[in-house]
Amino acid sequence: MTLQELEVPPKIIAEEREQLEVDLQNPPTDLGYDRQAWSPKLLLHYVKEKFDVEYTGCYTRSLLHEADPEEEAEFKQTVEKTTRTDRQDRRRG
Length: 93
Description:
By secondary structure, the protein is mostly helical. The protein has five helices and no strands. The protein has one domain. The protein is elongated and about 55 Å long.
């Protein structure tokens, strides 16, 4: 394994991260892509082209999840409901 393979990919700086968050609030079509919604693969491509940074698919999925507050709120509600239901089931059984 070479030293280059061991290096961690560079991270974007705070200002670039803020710009990325703004960009993710808009559909990819606003940035010239032919897709209506962001996908991890498209985001990987976009970050590489715009910021010259490579991330993993897992990290881009996290970025997409963070960028959609509505989706995050729905996720939290689902977790709360599931937790409540599990507790009630344990009490009954």
